[in-house]
Amino acid sequence: MSQDEERVQLIGCAIGAAVVSLIADGRVINRDNIVSELHRQGKSLGDGVGSIISHEAVEIVMRGF
Questions:
Q1: Which fold has domain 3-63?
Q2: Rounded to two decimals, what is the model's pTM?
Q3: What is the C-alpha to C-alpha distance for residues 61 and 41, in angstroms, rounded to an integer?
């Protein structure tokens, strides 16, 4: 598996984790809430690969699939 494939999988997992977190909190699933949750998760991960993946996931969600 290439690094690009792994990165895509991690981005998908980050978006999925954001959606699951929103559902668990009883919040509405929409683009703005997903972006907010990804930002929150990125900050909690600190500086590093997790934060970079969260940032890339935010860009994808904001741009649209």
A1: 1.20.5
A2: 0.85
A3: 14
